[in-house]
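Chapter summary example: a protein plus copper (II) ion.
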Amino acid sequence: MLGMSRREFLLGSAGTLSAFAGGSLIANQANAADLTLPIKTLSHSLLPDTVTDNMMGFGTDGPPPVLRLKQGEAFTIDVVNELDDASIVHWHGLRIDNRMDGVPYLTQQPIEPGEQFRYTLKAPDAGTFWYHPHCNTLEQMARGLTGVMVVEEAEDPGFDQDLPLNIRDFRLAGDGQFTSFFKPRNAARGGTLGTVSTVNWQSEPIYDMPAGSLTRLRLAVTDLTRVGTYDLSKAEAVVIALDSNPLSNPIAPEGIVLSPGQRADIALRVPETEGEIVTLTRRSAKGPKVIAHFRAIGTSSGRSLSELRPLAPNPVPEADLANAEVLDFVFGWSPEGT
Ligand SMILES: [Cu+2]
């Protein structure tokens, strides 16, 4: 679901919106937000031949839509809570008006079932971000509520395609239904890991792209737990941004460590020859695990990574370390939680 416009989004979620036709939840046109984003339950096939019930999503019957903003331009989103549970949306990484930050009781009250809240987002920084609830976070995120958000640069860097990759696991039993989201024993170690690895809610997807073209891969790890080391081996590619911060010196796309919430933007030059495949993998004890494939199709468009304009630095203030205050924190841990 790339680059969805407001119109496409509304069409895509017409079934949801029609439930409110003539009701009071949707404001009149003059007052309409740029986007209406319902939070809802749904069923979806994550594993072959099974349907996972009691999933949660944003607006559609599939993975959460990629939300696209333009750097420095205000964008309004009406979040409509159709769950039986209170919720809220936090826009992870965006430096925005604190009242729009989506933290329950601190910046706003939770959005109760049947209620809605209008967020006005004006992002000063461009890059790859993500969004998720901040109420009953473990469960709501585990059921699917993690989406990718893109803030487009004021100046187009010159890619042919832009492909956000929402990388996360789901904790499913063999029958495709959710199993316990949290085990104290696991939580005291590396975390309660998922059982099914997905990209954009698919297992090991293959993305076709024109041979010899330039693609911006936006890796966003929206998992709850897993820390991974990613490789895009044997590819003509460079990492151009980490956590939405452009790198002044791009690095090789090998050994990229991403923990939950982290993002990496990779500029990929799609292979020259039709049928050639580049594979994104994650390291594991059993060897590299496939995350996604990128396959060249058609005749080469003959582009080169050197044609890309470097990303402009975001207007992030420099930390004034000379005048910093020192605070001592003591971190402790025991299996009993004492
Ligand atoms: Cu977050």
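Key point: Residues 1-28 have pLDDT under 50 and may be disordered.
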